[in-house]
# Entry
Amino acid sequence: MDHLALLLWHALLVSVFFAFLWRQTAKGRRNLFLRTFLIMVIGGVLLGWLMYPFP
Amino acid sequence: MREKSKKAKATQGDGGNEQKASPMVLAAAWFIPGAGHWILGKKVRAAVFAAVVVSAFVTGILLQGELGTPKPQNPFSWLATFACFGNGILYLTRMTWLNGVGGFLAGIPFDLQGGGNPSVAGFAYGNTFLYTAGLMNLLTVLDVSDIARGEKS
# Structure
């Protein structure tokens, strides 16, 4: 099981959901989707690296 | 009590025609993901929400996640139950699948099996997907309420 794939899949689902929940226009949805998706993926990977030294 | 109800009436009276969301529409929105938006004519959003919630739920099940069930020794299990119960028919179907109809009804609240396998690597991930799916579906219920009351298009 690829953990990164699961992270991407989860981020994709949540980002699509909130893009359609909070924005009405195609442009607004695209922007929110990209922002949310990137924050979740990059933030998740960064947090993973920050936690790396801890047992 | 009378003063309170008078105040409430007065507050409503100012607006005059304050709309309320039909309980049946809200129940449908919870029970079948996307149904509330579909009833209100928001068919694209309905399809997207249904696809997202069902995909997250199925992923959670495939990863051997456990549906939240109340446990007397663990108060936080009620939060997990609330989140998973948000999945509506998906939750009820899975619980019936795991416990049987009789077992499901007889097991409420503390003797229910939520499935899943804690020894596999995907267990925690599966739980996360199941909770997320339920909470997203509950958010769609609030969205349906906003749309029905005219606060959102």
About this structure: The interface with chain B takes residues 1, 3, 6, 9-10, 13-14, 16-17, 20-21, 24 of chain A (CB under 8 Å).
